[in-house]
Amino acid sequence: MSKFFYKGKIEKKPKHESYGFNTSRKLKAGTAEAPLTLVVKDEEELAQVQAQLAEHQLVADISVSEDGSTNLQELEHLLAKPKTVSVEATPNRNDPCSCGSGKKYKKCCG
Q: Does the pTM exceed 0.90?
């Protein structure tokens, strides 16, 4: 119903903080306060993972499994963050051409 015809009290939207949703989380995964939990299958893989953690300055609780299973999902998730891609801007129609011909872009390569 439209707010112009409604005669009752208009309720405001609830604030996230009052309902237990943490909007300003300062805790990052891979730090001393929140270490990663990783499982490796042998000592050789343990050394490789520790070298990777030292390179990226991360903290993790690593355990060696007896059944030979590996769980490095948290580490892979942190390391596979997408990178920002910047693209060169194309010149405007009346700008000089980037190929060096001296003509306008619209007459040469546009």
A: no
